[in-house]
């Protein structure tokens, strides 16, 4: 490795040199503000006649044709592209300096490669960059074009002569870090990660891409980039891409991955599994295809697609890892499509019932992690799914009670519309365009005199039942309906192409509290059939073994504790008392402030920190009481986890 400071012109003036931006690097992304700052730095250098540090350029050297040098830019490509555009704008502004700028710093006169140009941007930007360098018209949207024109305007409006600005560019001082392509020498990836250059920050997907491709030669980079990465990139926006990789890692590692740990977690997974870049990219591409099918509900099976569509409307991306796993199991012939549909439908029913009953879904993360571990329950996917959902699966009675009371219309994720669309589709077997359908309040949200005269205690009824399922239906002429009296609405409803709406007119002569309650019961009964409660009895209480989240209600009487898992750290245990001690020791070592908080809870403090029957000493010297049953110890750990907001990080295993 060579590293030193150098002036910009000394760096760019190297003859027969191509500054190649590898195919895997991001497109040119500098914005207006960054370019204006660069030009401001140039004017300061011109006015003060002093050097200005512009950052670092990191590159790997290769030998090219005709004794040329190829500098593959690892870091600093955004800055180098902007400086090249600025130099081109200066050459056009001043004919006196034009030949010198272009021959010395922008082109290789005696080297045909790269159309004689010194800088070789990524393919996405090449056409625009070539147009700028050759002063050709270019009519497509491009940051290269936008920033080149911005530099032209800044030069034209500057009080400093263009020739002075050109001279001042040699005051730009930078650090270069030259790396060898010899695999026995320094690792470009390690050096790249340690840099904290200014500019557009890299996303987790950018870092993963660089990690997988930077280790390869140019030919391999181009091949794998085009065969895999560019195809994945076309599927997702940047934010979705990072989310996909995080969910992919859940499938592969069976652990929770924090948003700010996606790259480091992927690196650990890649290294620990001894993957090659091609193996890794091929697998990413396969699972990205699954993810794309899930997001757009466009798998090869219509019934599976309908489940995917419902889960998307419910905004339940947390279960995407499990859905990807099911799709992969079908593709590898480990389960058939019918099994995948049955499992996905159980999960769909759980999600719908949980949301309709306004139950917290924060524990879903841990459940999905558990579902992706195929080693549990001997690979019995149905048993695993039922066991993990069992404790919190809302039953029929709870669903009915909730839909009788909950203002479904104002629930998040269009739950009211989704319920009505699903009911209509279940009846007619016809697909309803979710976006076109509108939710109609039969008793309107704004009551007029006629409604108050026709319905006893109309305002109270509207307040209590106006947003419940029974008072809602589907229509495409919502504005026409407004707050017309029910007698007029009935006439519209009779001619509706929505069976749910026609049925209202056919069944109810009057509309009020009794009608709303009756219809809510009828529609809830239908939803219970559509989203059935699975036969939880399949999970025999005598078979209670395996892993459970700390907030699951499980009867562990007579069962032995085997392990407690805290934030992915697994601790083997032999007794329930040992589990309690390990949990409290981990809490102290991880966050002493959280440990102190539990003492502020009177109940916990009274039970734990006033030992009298079976005292035990923690690592920090605190003496605690341990004379509790297994169920009480689990309740204590669950309560402390809730206080410290780590419930989704704690699970335990019994046998």
Proportion of residues in β-strands: 5-15%
Fraction of helical residues: 40-55%
Q: Taking Cα atoms only, what radius of gyration do you get, to the nearest Å? A: 33 Å
- Numbering strands along the chain, what is their spatial order in the largest sheet? 1-6-3-4-2-5
Determine the number of helices (DSSP H or I, runs of at least 4 residues). Answer: 30
The poorly predicted ranges are: 196-200
Task: Calculate the mean pLDDT score and round it.
Answer: 88
SSE class = alpha+beta
The termini sit apart by 56 Å
Number of strands: 14
C-alpha geometry = globular
Sheet with the most strands?
Answer: 6 strands, mixed
What does this structure look like?
With 655 residues, this protein is an alpha+beta fold. The protein contains 30 helices and 14 strands. The strands form four sheets. The chain has a six-stranded mixed β-sheet. Strands 9-14-10-11 form a four-stranded antiparallel β-sheet, with helices on both faces. The two termini are 56 Å apart.
Explain briefly what this protein structure is.
By secondary structure, the chain is an alpha+beta fold. 53% of the residues lie in helices and 11% in strands.
């Amino acid at each position: 490795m060579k590293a030193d400071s150098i002036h910009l012109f000394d760096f760019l003036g190297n003859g027969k040199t191509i500054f190649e931006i590898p195919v895997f690097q991001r497109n040119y992304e500098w914005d207006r503000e960054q370019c204006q700052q660069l030009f401001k730095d140039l004017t300061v250098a011109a006015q003060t006649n002093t050097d200005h540090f512009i950052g670092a350029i990191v590159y790997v050297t290769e030998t090219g044709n005709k004794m040329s040098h190829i500098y593959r830019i690892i870091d600093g490509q955004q800055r180098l592209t902007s400086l090249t555009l600025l130099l081109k704008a200066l050459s056009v502004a001043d004919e006196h300096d034009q030949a010198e700028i272009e021959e010395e710093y922008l082109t290789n006169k005696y080297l045909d490669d790269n159309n004689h140009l010194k800088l070789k941007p990524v393919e996405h930007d090449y056409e625009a960059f070539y147009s700028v360098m050759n002063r050709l018209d270019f009519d497509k949207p491009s940051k290269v074009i936008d920033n080149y024109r911005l530099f032209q305007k800044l030069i034209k409006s500057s009080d400093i002569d263009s020739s002075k600005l050109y001279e001042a560019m040699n005051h730009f001082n930078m650090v270069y870090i030259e790396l060898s392509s010899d695999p026995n020498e320094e690792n470009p990836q390690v050096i790249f990660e340690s840099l904290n250059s200014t500019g557009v920050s890299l996303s987790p997907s950018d870092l993963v891409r660089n990690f997988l491709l930077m280790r390869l030669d140019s030919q391999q980079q181009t091949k794998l980039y085009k065969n895999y990465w560019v195809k994945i990139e076309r599927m997702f926006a940047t934010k979705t891409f990072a989310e996909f990789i995080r969910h992919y890692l859940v499938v592969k590692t069976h652990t929770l991955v924090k948003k700010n740990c996606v790259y480091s977690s992927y690196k650990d997974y890649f290294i620990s599994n001894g993957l090659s870049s091609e193996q890794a990219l091929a697998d990413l591409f396969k699972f990205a295809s699954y993810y794309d099918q899930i997001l757009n509900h466009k798998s090869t099976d219509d019934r599976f697609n309908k489940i995917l569509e419902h889960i998307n409307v419910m905004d339940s991306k947390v279960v995407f890892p499990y859905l990807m796993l099911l799709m992969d199991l079908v593709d590898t012939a480990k389960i058939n499509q019918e099994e995948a549909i049955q499992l996905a439908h159980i999960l769909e029913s759980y999600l719908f019932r949980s949301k309709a009953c306004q139950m917290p879904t924060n524990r879903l993360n841990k459940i999905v992690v558990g579902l992706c571990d195929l080693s549990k329950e001997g690979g019995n996917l149905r048993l695993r799914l039922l066991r993990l959902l069992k404790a919190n699966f809302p039953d029929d009675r709870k669903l009915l009670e909730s839909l009788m009371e909950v203002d479904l219309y104002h629930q998040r994720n269009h739950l009211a519309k989704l319920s009505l669309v699903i009911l209509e589709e279940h009846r007619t077997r016809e697909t309803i365009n979710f976006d076109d359908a509108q939710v109609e309040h039969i008793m309107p949200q704004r009551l007029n005199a006629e409604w108050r005269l026709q319905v006893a205690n109309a305002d109270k009824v509207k307040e209590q039942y106006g947003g419940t399922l029974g008072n809602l239906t589907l229509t495409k002429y919502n504005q026409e309906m407004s707050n017309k009296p029910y007698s007029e609405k009935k006439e519209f409803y009779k001619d509706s192409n929505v069976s749910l709406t026609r049925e209202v007119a056919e069944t109810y002569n009057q509309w009020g509290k009794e009608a709303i309650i009756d219809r809510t019961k009828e529609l809830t009964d239908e939803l219970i059939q559509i989203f059935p409660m699975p036969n939880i009895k399949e999970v025999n209480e005598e078979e209670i073994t395996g892993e459970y989240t700390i907030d699951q209600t499980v009867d562990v009487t007579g069962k032995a504790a085997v392990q407690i898992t805290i934030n992915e750290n697994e601790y083997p245990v032999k007794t329930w008392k040992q589990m309690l001690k390990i949990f409290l020791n981990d809490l102290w070592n991880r966050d002493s402030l959280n440990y102190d908080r539990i003492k502020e809870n009177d109940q916990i403090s009274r039970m734990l920190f006033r030992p009298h029957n079976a005292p035990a000493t923690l690592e920090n010297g605190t003496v605690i009481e341990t004379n509790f049953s297994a169920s009480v110890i689990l309740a204590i750990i669950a309560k402390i986890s809730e206080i410290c907001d780590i419930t989704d990080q704690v699970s335990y295993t019994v046998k």
